[in-house]
Amino acid sequence: FTLFFILSLFFISGCVHQKKTIQKFVVSQKAVTGKNTFNSIQAAIDAIPENSETPYRIFVRTGQYYEKVTLKKSNVELIGEGKNKTHIYFDAYAGQTYANGKTWGTPGSATLTIQAANIRIENITIENSFDFLTNDALANEEPKRVANAQAVALFLESKRKKVFLKKSSWSFFL
To answer: pTM for the whole thing?
Structure first.
């Protein structure tokens, strides 16, 4: 009986401490088909089930991804092929009108907005590509000069979220 009890404890403790399997997605701009393969970063994020505790790794292939990304799902890794190879960019600015006369506002101008916990971003450049410097060089009375030209690359919506950035870069102007 004692041997059975000891073996049962080992089995139970082994089950309790097993790591969760990471689900893997791939994002590629090339015509790639297959399970868990997407042509945009947002599409891969949207495919993650709501309130999933399973960790997801989204491998983003080399490319220029012009998209505005919102990450509301926790336990996600965005892994690129190199900060000089994998580039997410968008050109919104705070005063820009986008739909039904609404403006982005400073937080809304972000290329990548994170509203989730336990996020890891690695080997990716995140850029707000609005040309702030050209706009700023225009005279105040110049009709082409835009007001409210703040442009955010990465916006973390909460102070209590754990976000890890490694071998990544971001650029923006406020």
So the answer is: 0.81
